[in-house]
Design goal:
Blueprint lengths: L3 H8 L4 H20 L7 H47 L8 E7 L2 E7 L1 H9 L2 E6 L2 E6 H10 L4 E3 L15
Length: 171
């Protein structure tokens, strides 16, 4: 029975040069295995390894970029949610004669408010929140909700003070 190489030669599927090269490569590999010397991977194997490594690196980079984009989107969503809460719950018609000093971004700012709002800020019923260089006067409940989302937004929130005055119907 003829060898497979002979059959391929007769069928015209290979040439004598290719069969000699295949036999030579086979002998070299066997000799290297016997001598204990590590043989180098063939060119195709090297290309496949490099290709697999490049694909793995690209996938890792893509995953990192996707995580970064997701984080940026979550931050933007949180910012817009806080802005919506502040604009919706902002107190209006509080402009008055008294000045209230507070710090915003390491700068001392002044807010002109009426006496009732000033007293409410001092007693802890109202709070100041700052976002995008804008100050919002909101209730302490709104400020508490905002502080759960992002604590740095709340600029001033005094502790609630129990009323010191006696009730009129109290003996």
């Amino acid at each position: 029975m003829a060898s497979l190489q002979d059959q391929l030669l007769k069928a015209g599927l290979t040439t004598k040069q290719k069969t000699r090269q295949a036999n030579s490569d086979k002998r070299k590999k066997n000799k290297q295995k016997r001598s204990g010397v590590q043989h180098e991977a063939s060119l195709q194997e090297k290309v496949q390894q490099d290709l697999a490594k490049n694909i793995e690196d690209k996938n890792a980079k893509d995953i990192a970029l996707n995580e970064e984009k997701k984080q940026q989107l979550a931050d933007k969503e949180l910012h817009l949610r806080i802005k919506q809460i502040l604009t919706h719950h902002q107190l209006k018609n509080i402009v008055g004669d008294s000045e209230y000093n507070y710090t915003f971004n390491n700068k001392i700012k002044k807010l002109h408010i009426d006496a009732k709002t000033n007293k409410a800020l001092i007693n802890g019923q109202l709070a100041l929140c700052g976002l995008d260089e804008t100050t919002f006067v909101v209730t302490s409940e709104t400020a508490a909700k905002i502080s759960t989302l992002k604590e740095s937004i709340v600029l001033l929130q005094n502790e609630k003070v129990a009323s010191d005055t006696l009730e009129e119907d109290d003996p």
